[in-house]
Amino acid sequence: MTLDEILKEIKNANSFMITAHENPDGDAIGSCLAFATVLKEMGKEKIDVLLKEYPPIFNTLPNIDLIKSEASLDKYDMAIVLDCPEIKRVSKEYHKYFEDAKITVEFDHHLKNAMFADLDVVNPAAPACAEILVSSFRYMKIEISKDVATCLMAGIITDTGGFRFNSTTRETFEFAGWALAKGVNIPKIYKDYLMTKSKSQFEAEKLALDRLEFLMDDKIVFTYMTKEDEEKLNIQPGEFDGIVGIGITIKGVEVSIFARERSDGFKVSFRSNNIDVADICMLFGGGGHKLAAGCTIDAKLEDVRKAVIEETKKHLK
Ligand code: AMP
Ligand code: MN
Ligand code: MN
Question: 10-residue block means of pLDDT along the chain (317 residues)?
Fold first, then answer.
């Protein structure tokens, strides 16, 4: 079984690089830090979590100092990629370390995974990559300490929207109960990583909601943010992540769309109550999950708006 091989390789390896998809969210960061903490607790000496930029709210997670933007070795024994369906979605600077590692491993829960590592552990039914790590660590008989459980819980709580999304499983609650008994402060994780926003984030949400338009008998909502807005509001990484989720809470809305201008074009986020938005995003070279997906389109705002709305209309019919 793949996990037996992974455990054998972990035992043989001394240096590790761990990474996730770029613009990492709570699941990406929580999964990376959970894995890094496990390796540290095993006595491994060289562990680099390579992530370029991450939301500063996660600074209170255990072993956050293991996150580095630059590699400290030329070559690692093992590369571990988490919460990422294809190597293309890892920051380009880190591809070299993945390619040069003696062995590569991935754990992921996205719908279409490219099985790009030597050893792949993929389960699209899992609500978070962190939940795959829970069962994997248990299978490998790796102890889940309070610190590891805290990181895993951060991943699970953020990716399930606080146990709200229908991806949430019985195992999710079982692990939450187990973690609580272990001393993990679940209400604090919930509050700090899901319910707290900075003033700039609040202002950004206010602007996006003010611009929100209803289309197709109020079944689609669309809003956007430009680079100019971002500069004015002094936005930190991750502070746009909640916007698309607000639209989908409106009764009757089937699809919520949020387009955000970046250097490589507009990053478009989709949330759905039923139709498969990963399908729509794949048409634009993106992907994700059935009810939460994204893509990047390098075009003018008006063209992006038209293209994504037209495609969503077709899928709704
Ligand atoms: P987000 O809207 O950024 O929260 O992303 C929702 C889901 O879509 C996540 O599973 C992402 O991994 C996926 N996703 C977002 N942007 C892209 C993209 N440009 N290409 C492929 N998948 C994406
Ligand atoms: Mn993620
Ligand atoms: Mn995830």
Answer: 97 98 97 98 97 95 98 98 98 98 98 96 98 98 98 98 95 98 98 95 97 98 96 91 96 98 96 97 95 97 98 95
Q: For residue 32, what are the CA distances in angstroms to 21, 50, 177? A: 11, 9, 22
At position 297, the amino acid (one-letter code) is I
β-sheet bridge partners, residue 80: 18, 105
Res 1: pLDDT: 87
Question: What integer pLDDT is reported at residue 237 of this predicted model?
Answer: 87
In the prediction, which pLDDT does 308 show?
98
**CA 121 – CA 59 distance, rounded (Å):** 28
Ligand number with the minimum distance to the CA of 29: 2
CATH number at residue 303: 3.10.310.30
Task: Please check whether residues 178 and 226 belong to one and the same domain.
Answer: no
Q: Point out the ligand 1 atom lying closest to the alpha carbon of residue 110.
A: 10
pLDDT on residue 317:
85
Give the residue whose CA is nearest to atom 7 of ligand 1: 293
Q: By alpha-carbon position, which residue is closest to atom 15 of ligand 1? A: 294
For 66, residues 6+ apart whose C-beta sits below 8 A from its C-beta are 33, 36, 40, 47, 48, 49
pTM strictly above 0.90: yes
pLDDT for 263: 93
Q: Which of 295, 296, 308 to mutate to test the pocket of ligand 1 (most atoms within 8 A of CB)?
A: 295
153: CA distance to ligand 3 center in Å?
12
Domain of residue 62, CATH code: 3.90.1640.10
Enter the DSSP assignment of 273.
Answer: S
Q: Which domain holds residue 26?
A: 2-195
Report how far ligand 3's centroid is from the alpha carbon of 84 (Å): 8
Output the CA 291–ligand 3 centroid distance in Å.
13
Atom number, ligand 1, closest to the C-alpha of residue 278: 8
